[in-house]
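Please complete every field before forwarding. Incomplete forms are returned to the sender.

SECTION A: IDENTIFIERS
Entry label: holo-378
Bound molecule: flavin mononucleotide
Molecule representation: SMILES string

SECTION B: INPUTS
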Amino acid sequence: MKAFNIEELRLAARRRLPRAVFDFIDGGAENERTLRGNLAAFEKVRLMRKVLVDVSAISTETTILGKNAKLPIAIAPTGAVGFGWRGGDIAVARAAAAFGIPFSLSTSATASIEKIAEAAPGRHWFQAYFFKDREFTFGLIERARLAGYDTLMVTADLPVGGKRERDFRNDFSIPFRFTPKNMLDFATRPAWALDMLLRGVPQLENLAGMTDHHADTRNLVSSVGRSQDAALDWEVIKRVRTVWPGKLLIKGVVHPEDAELAVSHGCDGVIVSNHGGRQLDSEVASFDALPDVVRAIGGKASVLMDGGIRRGSDIVKALARGAEAVMIGRATFYGVSAGGEDGAKRALEILSEEFVRTMQLCGARSVGEIGPQLLYQG
Ligand SMILES: Cc1cc2nc3c(=O)[nH]c(=O)nc-3n(C[C@H](O)[C@H](O)[C@H](O)COP(=O)(O)O)c2cc1C
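SECTION C: PREDICTED COMPLEX
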């Protein structure tokens, strides 16, 4: 798969997909300030490199939540990947295994918990959304435990859906509905459209059997459904902690007080994230929220971050600010949408090669040598 950087994979995905599907992946909430802000935050901060360090041998090996990983990267959970590429969830999970990094499966994935466990080797994490029917999610958590997933993340930044206007404009919803507007759009990408017609529309397999799942198709993607439980609070985390024996993370933390609450509720870490700018528009960029969260956690738990990782240098910067690892959402989603498993692997290859090159150019030989001394303090 030919692409020199993540942006070229993004453009390749745009050429293959109908506008509605591409916009669903690419877009954010409202004015997309947070979406752009995630990228701009990395733009603002510059590196301070060291010279005359022997960087002929580099190690990117690290530990994420107590287990070895070949890179300080994990795949972020993303829903509806099958719309970008049929079988895309499995393709991304296999790519992650090939690169020795964890793969997170979304509640809204187009492959079931068990299918991923069977079809892809490697380390699997499960992302839980809580719906009004909370027992349904506890059922998914139990299935993830039985299928050998070692980490659970509860996404906390989605009490209600963000206002994703591109989806409204494009008539994009899941479960999927054909409308005159999106049919015209799909006609511009006949190969994609024919595959949907002949082989059927991908299903959110983990949600099969959920009551109310089909109740409001229009909002399901753009707001991840009116089934979402807006009453969710820390009480549910107490119960999750008692039923989940593995590592437990809260995803979507930006406030240092929430980081402290996560630790006091027995969580093993937090993911500093704003859902890739898809939820609260105008909120702080993940990279900017990171330092205060790292301080609040004070080494008592792990801090991961996601949002805006498009270059290897972004990973160096996030680690320099104290992240144990980064998660990537769109980078591999663009890759898999452009070219299936090869495309997902190309995304990871690009990021890992850039990461190594940046380390070498900075004079850092191992992940442990990446620290605040590599950031220009102004
Ligand atoms: C198309 C798409 C679908 C997503 N679906 C989910 C999801 O189902 N659950 C979740 O916790 N986060 C979801 N996210 C957010 C990602 O996990 C992650 O926080 C975000 O993509 C990181 O930003 P980045 O795309 O700039 O890397 C989704 C993001 C995208 C782009």
